[in-house]
Structures are given as C-alpha cells and as structure tokens.
Amino acid sequence: MAIGGLGLASLAGYSAGFQSLVLGSDSPLAAYVPLFLGLFALYVLAVGLLVRRPSSDRGLLILILGFGLLFRLAVLPTPVVLSSDLYRYFWDGRVQWAGVNPYRYPPAAEELRPLRDPEVFPALNRPTKRTVYPPGAEALFAAVAALAPDSLVAWRVLLLGGEIATAALLLGLLARTGAPPTAVLLYAWAPLAVFEGVQAVHLEALLLPLLLLALRFRQEGRMARAGLALGAAVLLKLYPLILVLAWRRRGDRRFPLALALTVAAGYLCYLPGAGPTIVGFLPEYFGSAEDFNIGLRFFLTDAIGLGGEIARGTVMLLLFAVLLAILIRIPRGRAEDAESVLGAGMTAVAAYLVLVPTAMHAWYALWILPFLTLRPSPGWIWFSGAVGLSYLKYAWEPEGFPLWARALEFIPLYGLLAWEAYRRRGVAATAAYRPASQAGVGPTLDRTGA
C-alpha cells in the first residue's frame, strides 16, 4: 500500500534520520530543517493520496493511527533539541513546591538562589524575566513536579496522552461532518505536530484537546461547557481567547460568563503573593527584542525600508485593529449549524496567524492543525511545513533570518489563501444562482480552506 510505504519512510526519518542527521550534527537546528522538510514532503504525498481517493476503510484508519503513534514513540527517548521551554516547566514547578509564587521572582533573583542546580538553572531561557505562562500552566508544572520532578519522560508521556485525546476528538468531529475518518492523517502525520509536541515538549499538545472540546460543545449549543473548556485552554496559553469573539452567540451570556469565571478563578489562585507581577513577562513580550519570524508586519515595514520603533508600533496597532474587526464581524449573519461554528473558529485562528504582529515560533502554528484536519486548506498545509524554515534563524546567527526563507515561508501562504478565498466566492455565487430544483445537487461542504 502506498500509505504504508510513506509511513515506513517517515518512521525511518523520525527514528534513524533524527538520530544520525540531527543529534549527530554539530549544528542540530540547521540539520533539523532539511530533515523536517523531507518528512513534510512525505506528509504532503500522503495527504494527496487521501484527497484523490477518500476512504473510510477501517484497516487504513488503523494503519494511519498506528504510524502516527510510532512517529511520536520514535522521538520520545531523544533529548530535547528544538526548545528549552521544558526547563522553565521544571523550574516553575520547583519554585512552587518551595512555597514561592512563580510570578513573584525571576529565576535569577537572589531570593531563589537556594533552588539553583547545575542542570536546570543554566538551561533556562530568559532567567532574568518572570514567567510568561498563565496559571493553568503553572498549576500543571506544580502537579508534574510533585509526581516526577525534573522528568522529561513524564512530560512526554503526558503530552502523548494529550495527542491521543486530540486524535480521538478529531475522529468524533469528522464523523459528525460525514468526512472519512482517515482524514485524521492531516493531524496525526503532520511533522509539525510530532516535533513541536512530544519532541519539543510544548504545551500546545495539551491545549488542542481543550480547544476541540470547546468546539464540540459550541457546535452542540452547550454554551456554558464551551466557555469552561475554552477558559481552561486560555489558562494554558492566552491566545485562544480570540475565539470568544468568533464563537459568541447573540443574546447568550453563558459562553462568555463561563469563560470569564474560569479564567478569573485560575488567576485568583495565584494572586496572593504576586500582586501586579501576576502578568509576568507578558508586557515585555510585545517589545522589539522578542520579534522572531515576523510575517506580514515585516513585509509592511522592514521589507520596504520602514524600520524603527515608530513604524513598528504603528503597523502593530493597525494589524491588531484589523484582527479585532475581523473577529467582531465573524458572527454576523453566521448560522448556528456545526459547519458554520467550525468555519468561524478556523477563520479566527487563520486571521490571528496571518495578522499577529508578534513572534511566530513554529509551535504557535500548531493550533491550526485540528481545524485543517476538519477543513483542509492548501495554504495552511503549506505553512505547517514552511514554518519549519524559521529554525534557520539560529543557523544564520548573528546575521539573522535570511530574506529568501521568510519569503518562501509566507508569500505562498498569502497567495494560496487568496486563491482559496476566490474559489469560495465562486462556489457561493454558483449556489446563489442554482435553480431551486437543483437545491440538493452538488457538494454541501467546501473543504478547500479557512
């Protein structure tokens, strides 16, 4: 079977390829990029096979899920290469079990000197900055530290459980839309999910099942539960908060109220001993020092010679305003059926990723993958691979991210999204002029994009 062959080739890349090419390299991040792109090419071939020949075959589904699990098990015993965030998880958990509020001091503070060790502390990024993680993440750090302090394996097993939950929820949502269950391959085989989840140990692997729960509850009209699930997601990472605007329903207060109460409860738990410092590193996150792999803002400023803080701040505000306008407009005229709710969520996430004027680390794109599985988009499939080019930034230090790589990453995304939007307008126009006698003729779901 072609899918089986692609799965075996991919497994070789995740196991022997990663061990020899990346871990055996003097420059692991530079070596990672060609391996990632090679695996992405295999992924695109597999997606293409499923698009041309959709199947609900149970044996094929088991094969797809089995390989997805094997890919993650292959990288589970490897050392973390792509990120040092894990060490902040260790540190913040340790600080809490020492009876100190994690928002109160940065790791380098003299007050925390007794907690330093030769393994975790030197590996921390931003040791002079307070934590940026929301209270839900901090509670998770403390819980894992209680059960298995400083354990990479414990974190990877936990995130693997999150990925399994994501796949299970996606299968349920695919069944509701009538799509073949084998479409779960778009998430299960995505190199971005494999590497940025279990390998790099990013919290998005736990965020995604909460988002999918919120989506399902919102589709079913269970507004309070949707707000609770989305609130839990926001307590892990703040950016899902944008969905409260996209998924709001006129006249309903349960959804925003449940979300607000959930988030407030999380922050109230950490407010004593923190006070104003509970916002952590967040205000500094919007500073120019944190710029990384900037997309649209770069092409509107530096690419045309508009450098400096004034241009940067002006365009940032402009992009935030456009994003807010889109989020406010999404619910207007939207039906309350499941497909419309899905479309609203994907449009919001897509708008955020295109317009967000702050850093675009590769793992920030992970939350488009579940929506992409439910509603395939050539543009976002491209970006889920092209975003891996951002790791070249570390190979080009101190010169910075090469322009050709940035253009290859973002320009095709913008072009493909424009093409998808044009196609959707054509489909909508055709449907509008379809005779009533043909009302049930033709596809009922445009699965081309966000």
Brief rundown of the structure:
This protein is mostly helical and 450 residues long.
Structure annotation, total helices: 20
Number of domains: 1
The dominant shape is globular
Q: Strand pairing plus helix content: what structural class?
A: mainly alpha
Largest sheet: none
- Tell me the β content: under 5%
Mean pLDDT: 91
Radius of gyration: 22 Å
Distance separating the two termini: 31 Å
**How much helix, percentage-wise, in residues?**
55-70%
Order of helices and strands: HHHHHHHHHHHHHHHHHHHH
- DSSP strand count: 0
- Assembly annotation: single chain
Which runs of at least 5 residues are low in confidence (pLDDT < 50)? Answer: 429-450
Write a structural description.
With about 450 residues, this protein is mainly α. The protein has helices spanning about 1-20, 30-50, 60-75, 85-95, 135-145, 150-175, 185-190, 190-200, 205-220, 225-235, 245, 255-270, 280-285, 295-300, 310-330, 340-355, 370-375, 380-385, 390-395, 405-430. The protein is about 60% helix and about 0% strand. The longest helix has 30 residues, at about 405-430. The chain is globular, with a radius of gyration of 22 Å. The model is unreliable at about 430-450 (pLDDT under 50).
Characteristic key phrases:
20 helices, disordered C terminus, 450 residues, mainly alpha, single chain
Itemize the secondary structure elements and their pairings.
Elements: H1 2-22, H2 28-52, H3 58-75, H4 85-97, H5 135-147, H6 152-177, H7 185-188, H8 191-199, H9 204-219, H10 223-234, H11 243-246, H12 254-270, H13 282-285, H14 296-300, H15 309-329, H16 338-355, H17 369-374, H18 378-386, H19 392-395, H20 403-432
Helix pairs in contact: 1-2, 1-3, 3-8, 4-5, 6-9, 9-10, 9-16, 10-12, 15-16, 18-20
